[in-house]
Design a protein that fits this description.
It comes from Denitrificimonas caeni. By secondary structure, the protein is α+β, with helices and mostly antiparallel strands. It folds into two domains: 190 residues, Fructose-1,6-Bisphosphatase, subunit A, domain 1 (Fructose-1,6-Bisphosphatase, Chain A, domain 1), CATH 3.30.540.10; 128 residues, D-Maltodextrin-Binding Protein, domain 2 (3-Layer(aba) Sandwich), CATH 3.40.190.80. 29% of the residues lie in helices and 24% in strands. The protein is globular, with a radius of gyration of 20 Å. 47% of the residues are buried. Bound molecules: 1,6-di-O-phosphono-beta-D-fructofuranose and magnesium ion (2 copies). The site of 1,6-di-O-phosphono-beta-D-fructofuranose (FBP) has 13 residues, from strand 5.
């Protein structure tokens, strides 16, 4: 059986003029960093990587040792590539400019270095989410690459992907022409194409939401979940199953594999925030992947990828997955 590695796949993309060489190189470097993170994650207690750092990130969340380590791995791997102008991460207060005169590379990389970090210490799947944007053209002007350069709608993404560190380590990638899944062959040290054309089934009987927040939800979400729970006897006339891994990567990966709807609505716990998940690091890359796989992604009111970000660490409500279900709950928001 001939196997297509991620490198081979990317080379073919460049040969057929679908992916610029610089972007190919950037994805290769990110994939290499994900392999290194995978290695650290898999060491667990043996590597002394479990537990908290005792610090907080810009969003006031306690940082795990692996949050910080994964962030450092991604920064270091990408710092000298020449293809990037800057990076932004869930774990850094401000955007990071590649040292040297601006502009340098053509792209910007944004990432959630370790998603689902509450799962680390209990040995459940975690992941890395990333998104690639073009660096705005500044006509050769020098100076700091400010936060504004990153504030681009999700529709501007040129690539997005995630790595999932689970029973198998996989890299799922879109370059804007469908979604491919690569499984890490750890003996060879390479990602091998195993899922050629990932598609989200249009209908589903599975949902994912943190039910413990039910009393804080807004009316449309309460109504929809109540209908799901009524099963056969309710208006949707079928029984639904529920799953919640508490790592967006793992929940989205399941939806890409067998359909479903993922929801993290805004709620009354922190009414001033539009949701928990981060627009730039989580919602936009996952929305790009889901849409490229034939699914739908909204914040209940509009397509997530159409939202114009106003700040780097902006949050957003998320409803994504199988078309019929996402359209139903989005419709409930307008009633
Ligand atoms: O614990 P909760 O509130 O259910 O939240 C789970 C959500 O939080 C997140 O873990 C946030 O990600 P981080 O671990 O990167 O902060 C999502 O992956 C997941 O969907
Ligand atoms: Mg996350
Ligand atoms: Mg994270």
């Amino acid at each position: 059986m001939t196997r297509t590695s991620l490198s081979r796949f990317l080379i073919e993309q460049t040969r057929s003029h679908q992916t610029p060489a610089e972007l190919r190189f950037l994805i290769e470097v990110v994939a290499r960093a994900c392999k290194m993170i995978n290695h650290q994650v898999s060491k667990g207690a043996l590597g002394g990587v479990l537990g908290s750092m005792g610090t907080e990130n810009v969003q006031g969340e306690v940082q795990k040792k692996l949050d910080v380590l994964s962030n450092e791995i991604l920064l270091e791997a990408n710092e000298w590539g020449g293809h990037l102008a800057g990076m932004a991460s869930e774990e850094m207060d401000n955007a990071y400019q590649i040292p040297g005169k601006y502009p340098k590379g053509s792209y910007l990389l944004v990432f959630d270095p370790l998603d689902g970090s509450s799962n680390i210490d209990v040995n459940v799947s975690v992941g890395t989410i990333f998104s690639v944007l073009r660096c705005p053209d500044r006509n050769g002007e020098e100076g700091d690459l400010g936060e504004e350069a990153f504030l681009q709608a999700g529709t501007e993404q040129v690539a997005a992907g995630y790595a999932i560190y689970g029973p198998q380590t996989m890299l799922v990638l879109t370059l804007g022409n469908g979604v491919k899944g690569f499984t890490l062959d750890s003996e060879m040290g390479s990602f091998i194409l195993t899922h050629d054309n990932i598609r989200v089934p249009e209908t589903t009987a599975e949902f994912a939401i943190n039910m413990s927040n039910q009393r804080h939800w807004e009316a449309p979400v309460k109504r929809y979940v109540d209908e799901l729970l009524q099963g056969q006897e309710g208006p949707l006339e079928k029984d639904y199953n529920m799953r919640w891994v508490a790592a967006m990567v793992a929940d989205v990966h399941r939806i890409l594999t067998r359909g479903g709807i993922f929801m993290y609505p805004r709620d009354a716990r922190e009414p001033e925030k539009p949701g928990k998940l981060r627009l730039m690091y989580e919602a936009n890359p996952m929305s790009f992947i889901i849409e490229q796989a034939g699914g739908v992604s909204t914040n209940g009111h509009q397509r997530i990828m159409d939202i114009q970000p106003e700040s780097l660490h902006e949050r957003v409500a998320v409803f994504l997955g199988s078309k019929d279900e996402v359209e139903r709950i989005t419709g409930y928001h307008s009633k």
